[in-house]
Amino acid sequence: MNEYIDILIKSEVFKNISKDEIINILDDFKTEKKSFKKSNIIIDAGDIVENIYIILKGKVEISKEYDDTRKNIVNILNQGDIFAEAFAFSTNKVSSIQALALENTEIIKINIENIFKANDNNIKNMFLHNLLRVISDKNKFLAFKNDILSQKSLRSKIIIYIKYMANIQKSKNIIIPFNRDKLAEFISADRSALSRELNRLSKENIIKLDGNRISIINIKN
């Protein structure tokens, strides 16, 4: 596990925790490392979730499928990101999402019972403090997703997404972390309709398109 400490120290859940302290806390929590090949399912809808997961290497797609076979991407996670904590800490631990390895991926699992059983100390308290902040940030992100999904027009969905990314990246020249197919799934739109609307926004000089880069020209706050 020591070879991943430089990755873990950059993770939000280990903020203000030293490398030596991370090694100690991982030992106290009895963490387990797992490997998944590309397209392997890490968690499926309906699974009972008793662990939180931290990505050491690779990418993980979090998605939700609906009864009419529609798929909505909740998020795509990278090194240092965590997932499944909401289910692990809930009284109802049944997953409503799927976590899929988008490439060969390595993760560590932390069983929440091991967190509770670990000795109380400042390091454990800092970890829990960081974890609560991560959960809070995710709740705000889900509120943003709900805002997108509640929009009636595709243009409104796109503009809300662009404004959000500009705020996160602190720039009017933003990089979209998805290809068009994944972006369409993320905002729950048809891929062809998404491309047409992006092109209209470009022709109207509202945005400028350049591959996965979008420059904001005239979007009102």
TrEMBL record:
Pfam families: cNMP_binding, HTH_Crp_2. Signal peptide: none annotated. Residues 152-220 form the HTH crp-type domain. The keyword Transcription regulation applies. Keywords: DNA-binding, Transcription, Transcription regulation. GO terms for molecular function: DNA binding; DNA-binding transcription factor activity. Gene3D superfamilies: Jelly Rolls. InterPro entries: cNMP-bd_dom, cNMP-bd_dom_sf, Env_Response_Regulators, HTH_CRP, RmlC-like_jellyroll, WH_DNA-bd_sf. Residues 13-111 form the Cyclic nucleotide-binding domain. This is Crp/Fnr family transcriptional regulator. It comes from Brachyspira hampsonii.
